[in-house]
Amino acid sequence: MSAADASARRPPSQPQPRPQPEPQRQARAVRLGPRSVAALALVSATGAAGFGWPLFAGTGSQVSAHAQDAPWLFAGLLVLLVAVVAATISESGLGPKAVAMLGVLAATGAALRPIGAGTAGIEPMFFLMVLSGRVLGPGFGYVLGSVTMFASALLTGGVGPWMPFQMLAMGWFTMGAGLLPGPDRLRGRGELLMLAGYGFLAAFAYGTVMNLAGWPFMDALASNIAFDPHAAVPANLARFLAYCLATSLGWDLGRAVVTVVLTLTIGPTLLKALRRATRRAAFESPVTFDPG
Predict the structure, then answer these.
(1) Cα dihedral 180/52/159/123 (nearest 10)
(2) C-alpha 182: how far from its chain's center?
(3) What is the Cβ-side half-sphere exposure of residue 284, based on CA atoms within 13 angstroms?
């Protein structure tokens, strides 16, 4: 048998599979454990009570008597924020890297807030909060939003009875971005559109919630859209809706549009930078020290 016949009878060689590249490790959000969830639920319940209690206080309550309660709410909020941070650190192993990133993002957001000074809703800090909450998760996002608003109030001189309410509302705003679906899988244009849509709706929600903080203390005789402690809840809600349309719709629309535009234009670059920083920081990896 010739060499040609032998080679013809040999089974064809199977192609060797090419080595597949290892998938890129995704940035992992700071995870929430049971204690973190409990602390967030407690601070959110406190905030909801602080915003909405006048609607359910009853006709005999003295709403104006509670107009100076903001310092107590602020003190309680700080205690609860410390509890959120402590629970997150103990359950997720956060170290100095995470604290440093929290400080950098909070300082950046505080520096962005004076741009436009809220004129016509030009507030670029909101888009940074959306993207940061998306990458870093709801627990980290809540603390970041609250701390950023606190730092920006000190920077701009905006310290007043409204500040604890702003901290609560911004914490919810940023936490909501961390609760959006697909944090490990959704990427590209679909993710940007989802974040832009969330930022648009949440910008209106932020303005609406902040209106609720001051609206009950208007003089009921000044306008038919003011809070009436003797009216039923549906009637007061109708007054509140009219109040929002008459006073803050323009600012809320401007804030929503600015958030959408910045998310769609700068969002891809910033998301990549945040995820790269999160991977390099390795938040959930324990910090080890080499013996001297």
Answers:
(1) 40
(2) 16
(3) 14
Q: Which amino acid is at 119?
A: T
Q: Which residue has the tokens 């940035």?
A: 27
d(CA 96, CA 89) in angstroms, rounded, equals 10
Angstrom distance (rounded) from CA 278 to CA 272:
10
Cα–Cα distance for residue pair 210/250, rounded to 1 Å: 14
Residues of the chain with pLDDT below 50 are 21-27, 64-67, 286-292
CB 187 within 8 A of CB 202: no
Cβ of 220: how many Cβ atoms within 10 Å? 16
- Name 33's Cβ contacts closer than 8 Å, sequence gap at least 6: 87, 88, 91, 92
Closest CA to 160 of 123, 210, 88, 119: 210
Angle (deg, nearest 10), helices 163-178 and 125-136: 50
What pLDDT was estimated at residue 39? 75
**Residues across the chain:** 292
Q: Assess contact for 30 and 98: CB atoms under 8 A.
A: yes
CA distance 283 to 262: 27
* Beta-carbon contacts of residue 29 (< 8 Å; ≥ 6 apart): 135, 136, 137, 138, 140, 178, 183
Its pTM stands at 0.74
**Mean residue pLDDT across the chain:** 75
Q: Any residues with CB less than 8 A from the CB of 231 and at least 6 apart, and which?
A: 239
Nearest CA to 228 among 238, 216, 243, 213?
216
Distance separating alpha carbons of residues 116 and 46, to the nearest angstrom: 31
Q: Cα separation of 35 and 40, whole Å?
A: 9
